[in-house]
Design brief:
Blueprint lengths: L3 E5 L8 H11 L3 E8 L6 E2 L2 H10 L4 E6 L7 H5 L7 E4 L7 H10 L3 E6 L17 E5 L14 H15 L2 E5 L4 H7 L6 E4 L11 H9 L4
Helix pairs in contact: 1-7
């Protein structure tokens, strides 16, 4: 079964970021997930433009940038300038007056356009955007902090998106409180990617390689 594992780099050890990136690469991570927070759209500050620049330069793996910021269109060029063609940029539709304009800038730059859907955001309110994006990042926790509890009602939202993804041609990724049982349940249903943080990847006794291998060897 094919699914992708992404490292939530806000959970990494910043005492030696270079070592973290190399260890994750060698361990078999598929991509690096970068959370940018402005302290306004979400109640936290996380990861800087310099973090994004460094990780993009330090790896050849794909990078996913999750913009948890107000009005990303105002500064989208700064972030796009740090990325390579084929990297992914997620925005939150509620954070922008005209999200389709921002997504078009992502497309014009050769990046993969995506939206992130908060637990309290319904599928119906982003229906037209689903025809534009290629990836949908479903938040199973309220955005802004690692280590939060999974919100069970998000599962019904994923079921709705799974019914739409073939017709509208987008992939679904899971972000927040991602445990082995969630991968076991939702990967077979068609969720393509899983962002791994403190629940499953970081702060464990095992090496990243051992942890990632154990995930890929889950008995479906």
């Amino acid at each position: 079964m094919q699914f992708e594992l992404m490292a939530s780099m806000m959970c990494a050890n910043y005492g030696n970021l270079e070592k973290e990136v190399k260890a994750l690469e060698e361990g078999g991570i598929d991509s690096f997930h970068i959370d940018i927070m402005d302290g306004r759209y979400v109640p936290n500050f996380a990861m800087s433009l310099n973090d994004l620049r460094y990780i993009t330069m330090a790896t050849k793996k794909p990078v996913d940038v999750h913009l948890m910021i107000e009005h990303p269109c105002n500064n989208i060029g700064i972030f796009l300038g740090c990325l390579r063609k084929g990297d992914t940029v997620y925005i939150h539709p509620e954070a922008e007056y005209h999200p389709s304009t921002t997504l078009q800038k992502v497309i014009n730059a050769g990046m993969i356009p995506g939206i992130a859907i908060n637990p309290g955001t319904s599928v119906e309110t982003v229906m037209e955007l689903l025809r534009i994006v290629r990836k949908v990042l479903v938040m199973s926790v309220n955005p802004g902090n690692a280590g939060q509890m999974y919100l069970p009602y998000v599962g019904k939202k994923i079921t709705k998106l799974l019914a739409l993804k073939e017709d509208m041609d987008f992939e679904i990724c899971w972000d927040g409180a991602c445990s082995a049982d969630k991968i076991l349940e939702y990967a077979p249903k068609g969720v393509k990617g899983f962002v791994l943080g403190t629940t499953l990847l970081f702060g464990k006794k095992e090496s990243y390689g051992e942890t990632l291998q154990n995930i890929r060897e889950l008995k479906f």
